[in-house]
Design the sequence.
């Protein structure tokens, strides 16, 4: 992204889109006071986050026994109810579905390819499904502290080990087919990226014509195979993202607020919720709604406006696709592909 002298002026920045992730699939009931259990509680969590200022909802579903649901019928039911309860929210399904272990001593793992592909067949369909690019370690506890996990199920040795040893498989066999199915269903992929190598893979997908749509992505700074919390890495990722992309910052635990504060100041977007964080400060719990409210307060203190649901849909370019590779590159603010025999650095077409 290119920064002009006036790019940090809030009146020149896009209005802030706040993603809320209030369904905490890695946690069990009792780990947080605001974990939804019943379907009514799932819907109310969305309503509360929307009323607080969130306009994008990251969705997982929990069964009544407290474990993450893998039943697509549950997702269908929830999406249908959310369309009525929060019609202006962008509904985003978490592509991992449920990575939580079934019990102590079992693995924490993402579902197989066929199960994840079935998210393209949800009815009613969501606006987005998140998609990981390239297989990597996903040790979500690597940069969590004992204080972060105090009083939670993940503090138990068996659960801790399950999350320490987790990885996600997202190689070409997965993402090529998944992008195809999402496109055929008219669902926008929301790229979950952590490294420049992953960003470069997405750029190759765009330049080769495999993907021809808006580039909407999260910078995932959760450690353990994903990005860490070094501000310089965050700044470099922001710098490398194409000008026409929509970028959201995602971090974990007590780093969420400071990382997001940087993102708000830079003019990009933020994600909060109990899936990412349980704490305001050391020893002080914080609900998903309170985290949304905190982002609103920080943004307003800087003079940056908060997007409405309709404005978030426009910023995300929900429902849009492009006719060709050249159009996609132009819409995303990327220089065109090199033509045969062309030398030197590429310039945008006049």
Sequence:
């Amino acid at each position: 992204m290119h920064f002009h002298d006036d790019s940090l002026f809030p009146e020149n920045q896009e209005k802030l889109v706040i993603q809320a992730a209030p369904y905490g699939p890695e946690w069990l009931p009792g780990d947080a006071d605001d974990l939804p259990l019943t379907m009514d509680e799932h819907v109310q969590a969305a309503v509360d986050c929307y009323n607080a200022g969130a306009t994008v909802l990251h969705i997982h579903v929990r069964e009544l026994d407290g474990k993450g649901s893998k039943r697509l019928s549950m997702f269908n039911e929830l999406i249908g109810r959310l369309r009525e309860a929060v019609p202006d929210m962008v509904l985003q399904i978490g592509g991992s579905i449920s990575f939580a272990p079934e019990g102590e001593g079992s693995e924490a793992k993402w579902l197989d390819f066929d199960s994840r592909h079935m998210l393209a067949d949800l009815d009613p369909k969501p606006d987005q499904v998140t998609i990981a690019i390239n297989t990597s370690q996903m040790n979500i506890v690597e940069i969590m502290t004992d204080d972060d996990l105090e009083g939670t199920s993940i503090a138990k040795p068996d659960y801790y080990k399950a999350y320490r040893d987790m990885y996600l498989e997202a190689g070409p066999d997965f993402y090529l087919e998944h992008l195809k199915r999402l496109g055929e269903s008219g669902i926008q992929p929301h790229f979950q990226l952590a490294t420049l190598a992953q960003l470069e893979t997405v750029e190759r997908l765009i330049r080769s014509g495999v993907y021809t749509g808006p580039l909407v992505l999260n910078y995932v700074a959760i450690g353990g195979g994903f990005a860490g919390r070094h501000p310089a890495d965050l700044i470099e990722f922001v710098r490398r993202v194409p000008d026409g992309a929509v970028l959201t910052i995602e971090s974990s635990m007590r780093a969420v607020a400071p990382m997001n504060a940087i993102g708000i100041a830079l003019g990009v977007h933020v994600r909060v919720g109990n899936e990412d964080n349980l704490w305001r400060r050391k020893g002080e719990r914080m609900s998903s709604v309170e985290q949304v409210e905190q982002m609103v307060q920080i943004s307003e203190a800087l003079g940056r406006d908060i997007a409405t649901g309709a404005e978030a849909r426009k910023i995300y370019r929900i429902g849009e696709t492009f006719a060709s590779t050249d159009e996609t590159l132009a819409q995303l603010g990327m220089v065109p592909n090199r033509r045969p025999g062309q030398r030197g650095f590429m310039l945008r077409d006049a």
Notes: The longest helix spans residues 288-302. The two ends are 19 Å apart (CA to CA). The mean pLDDT is 95. The first strand starts at residue 18 and ends at 20.
